[in-house]
Amino acid sequence: MLNPLITAKRILQAAAQATDSGALVRLIVERIRTTLDVDVCSLYVMNEEGELVLTATLGLAQEAIGQIRMTPGQGLVGTIAKRQHPLNLDHADKHPAFRYFKETGEEHYQGFLGVPMIHLGQTLGVLVVQVRETRRFTEEEEAFLITMAAHLAGSLGGNIKKSARPVDPNQAQTQPVARFQGIKGAPGIEIAPAWVVKDDIRLDDIAERDGSGEAIERRRIHDAINETREELDTGLDQLGNTGEDTLNSLLDVYKLLLDSPELSTAIETEILTGVSASTALKRAILQQISVFEAMDDPYLKARAEDLRVLAVRIYRRLQDVHSERIDPAQPVILVGREINISHFTRIDRSLLAGIVSLEGSALSHTAVLANALGIPAVVGIGDEDLSGLHGAEIILDGYRGQIVANAPASLRAEFERMKRQQKALQADLSHLKKLPAESKDGTTVRLYTNTGLLADITPGLERGAEGIGLYRSEIPFMVHNNFPTEEEQTRIYQGVLDAYAPMPVTMRTLDIGGDKALPYFPIQEQNPFLGWRGIRFTLDYRNILLDQIRAMLLANKSSQNLQLMIPMLSREDELQRFHALVDEAVAQLNEEGHTVTKPPIGIMVEVPAVLWLLPRLRDSIDFVSIGSNDLTQYLLAVDRNNPRVASLYSHLHPAVLDALQGLVRECRRLNLPVSICGEMASDPAAVILLLGMGMRTLSLSAFHLPRIKWLIRHLHLEDCIALLDKSRDCATEAERREMLNAHIRGLGLGALVQ
User: Is the pLDDT of residue 165 over 80?
Assistant: First the structure.
């Protein structure tokens, strides 16, 4: 009996050894042809131009690969792609859609079975098997191929897609246009030669060895850590004034990790097992990295990069290995597996045009620093071999997270035009820092920023943030192997509050549990998003919450700009218990001789239940902040981090918009200040609707502040209200977005939606 699960498993295991996407698709057709014992197995993949390209085959002429192309609806394969439905034929050439391609030699094959490969609702390609005899494939064979297509599309869809990258007809076949898709790290467009850095030391590749004695290895690691601390204290100040503050703030994070007693203890524990200092370092760091990498929260997940960078710094000191200087003769785009902060310090700032990193995320410190320096960056490209790009001109599109190599003249000219438009936009935005976010008709909108590390503070201040609308307080709890002390928390919080004083800083209390388990307090749940997290967790451990509140109150003594915010609130009694804890903390500190007062207290609206609870909560809260990301997830029952359903997640969904408008209306009725923090606040199309609803405070990433301010200063409130009403008539979210983007382009702000 045919078993598609076993075959799929074997293909996936073998796929890990495939050298490139071409080898992968050859592997697929080979395994399926053998399993079904057919004469032909072929794979047609949809390219970026919407054509189905014969990408791999066993049984048809190899010369036809890459040459046979058809559009959806054309031929048997095109019909399958268009209808997204299989075809099982005993006389293929008698079907009305049959089309003969001489290059394939397929006139000898009659039995035909083709099934579509669907990924996230889109046709990825078509999988075809053929036999010489005149017969219809059995139900078991058809079911097998359908199941195989589903498994392969879901597991290998991205790699299969790469196998059909287009070739520019005006160029020689030896120089095809190469496109690499990654994650948007920092906005901007740059065209420059690539400088492929040699792979830096990788933590995972450090060889493990026995030590030369505990005393010797203990001294070695002690000296290396001290030298690393001295190196961090110097600030490695080579980036110029633009990035100096941000770089030093980032290095402060490494110093915090370096001085962690938990790290020292973990290293000491390993040394006592008889291993070398470098082995002890590797094992201790990897233990902490594994905790961050297992998290679903992308912000916290990105912090694993900090530990890797720190470990390599210490290892270099242990081995007395120095980094190579990057010294190009002209501005270049740095390309490498893991471009990190150390690479920024090894090149003259005037010669650094852009960043391309195979690893990393939009929340990594590589992206943070690139944004602060105004350098476009693409990160998270994945397992691609870019070594051949060294010295070649490439196009870096930070808006779309794309890299283009070997671009034809027409495409290069288009990117040159976009680059000039970008520079003009930057010149227009540079003067906005001290100007208010005020609409054409005089409506003022307050723009706050979201932050979570000291390193993130400077960009917000540099871009004119009027305060912090969301400070994530989880980091001090994640970098240790036990709960942080009140003193340590106080130091961290005070640095944030003092930096923004007298502007308001809204600190969210510990939002931990479920999908963001502490390394020293693991939590296993079947559905963490509906589980023990946020205020539910901290109220069950009131001593932890009490210590955090005390630390925030102490940090606020001199600045007096603190606002407390409760995450994941869903019940009235949770709010009352929180107030009781704050009152207790205030009383304790005053008894101890610290003059503190109770700050304003607000809630994050993330759980839909709060939409109906507001009147009951009104007398106990001072403000409301809408967590649009989680609220959208809960309203739509969609996990936006799940690729199978992520396409269903949209904050422009009519139910989400109705809920938000009702919430804003209720807050106005109750005389409650309301703001929004989440992706909606940085989405130009969504901002128009939010203003139309009556939202007057937005909290967003610092890097989007000037662009959203620019938009607001070109809007008329009456137009926002009219567009909100008009959006209700749109049939889909895509139609709604295009309608709003058309208005933005009509204002002459096309750069915001490119």
Answer: no
SS3 letters across 309-377:
HHHHHHHHHHHCCCCCCCCCCCCEEEEECCCCHHHHCCCCHHHEEEEEECCCCCCCHHHHHHHHHCCCE
Q: Is 720 a catalytic residue?
A: no
Q: Which residue has the higher pLDDT, 478 or 578?
A: 578
**Active-site residue identified among 41, 667, 677, 720:** 677
Active site residue 41: no
Tell me the sheet residues that pair with 604.
625
H/E stretch holding 134 reads none
SS3 592: coil
Minimum mean pLDDT range among 54-68, 348-362, 529-543, 602-616: 529-543
Closest by alpha carbon to 507, among 487, 486, 493?
Answer: 493
Task: Give Cα 527 distance to the centre of its chain.
Answer: 22
Eight-state DSSP code of residue 18: -
Q: Tell me the two tokens of residue 255.
A: 């110093």
Where helices occur in 168-303 by DSSP H, the ranges are: 214-234, 241-258, 261-271, 277-293, 298-301
Strand-pairing partners, residue 516, are 513
Over residues 624-632, mean pLDDT: 93
Q: DSSP label at 516?
A: B
Contact 200, 260 (CB under 8 A): no
Residue at token pair 């408008």: 661
Of 151, 343, 365, 704, the active-site residue reads 365
204 in Cβ contact with 406 (< 8 Å): no
The letter for the amino acid at 206 is I
Specify the range with the lowest mean pLDDT, choosing from 109-113, 183-187, 253-257, 263-267.
Answer: 253-257
